[in-house]
Amino acid sequence: MSENVEVKTLVIDGHEVSARRGQTILEVARENNIDIPTLCHLDGLSDVGACRMCLVEIAGNNKLLPACVATVSEGMQVTTSSERLQKHRRTILELLFAERNHVCSVCVANGHCELQSLAQDQGLTHVRLPYRNPDLHVDASHERFTLDHNRCILCTRCVRVCAEIEGAHVWDVMGRGINSMVITDLHEDWGSSSCTRCGKCVQVCPTGALFDKSKIGTSHPKYPDFLPYLNLMREAQ
């Protein structure tokens, strides 16, 4: 290890681990096979702490911090699983399910959805909150892909992969709060936007919000594992 790399020692769930200066809690936890649930995080993309699923407890701090953006410090004591954290994570999932229209039984991503998988992992059997049932449209104007706002959880993976990996900057977020939604260009239909048709946004979408029309009715999981490699190649250029 380089002499310029400052090593930090911290404790995660009772295990003493080492980390490099500037690393996030999530990075260190995964290096040590400690699971922290995530939705908006994806290796190869920048982190924004949007979904709050990776909240952890830090000794001496009353606030819960998102592990994907919180950096390590010397002597830090981190708890990744507790009754308090489980309650927060289930509540976040309930809010996501209640905010839009997620009906797993008729979704094209049923069985290959990260939101669905997380709900199962966290033991979420029902939603206690009233469903909003917003009137959201489906944009099928693209020749290959479809955008279903009903299934979008605003993780912004599509925005980040389009900007950071493809360099096209087609996707963005419009509106504020509960009225936020992802858009292409200046809220144009996807089919008439400046989209390069690369499909990276579809591959990284954790739900059925972005999907390939040719895969409807087929069991076709997504493969976002190519992102770290593409990111390294882009940086090399």
Describe this structure in words.
The structure is a single chain. The protein is an alpha+beta fold and 237 residues long. The chain folds into two domains: 75 residues, Ubiquitin-like (UB roll), CATH 3.10.20; 151 residues, Alpha-Beta Plaits, CATH 3.30.70.20. It has six helices and ten strands. The strands form three sheets. Strands 2-1-5-3-4 form a five-stranded mixed sheet, with helices on both faces. It has a three-stranded antiparallel sheet with strand order 6-7-10. Strands 8-9 form a two-stranded antiparallel ribbon. The longest helix has 17 residues.
Provide key terms for this protein.
6 helices, 237 residues, Ubiquitin-like (UB roll), alpha+beta
Work out the count of structural domains.
Answer: 2
In which order are the strands of the major sheet placed?
A: 2-1-5-3-4
Please give the number of β-strands.
10
Largest sheet: 5 strands, mixed
Average per-residue pLDDT, rounded, comes to 92
Gross CATH architecture of the largest domain: 2-Layer Sandwich
Principal-axes geometry comes out as globular
* CATH class group of the largest domain: Alpha Beta
Could you state the oligomeric state of the chains shown?
A: single chain
Low-confidence stretches: none
Q: Look at the helices and sheets and give the structural class.
A: alpha+beta
CATH-derived topology of the largest domain: Alpha-Beta Plaits
The gist of it:
The protein is an alpha+beta fold. It contains six helices and ten strands.
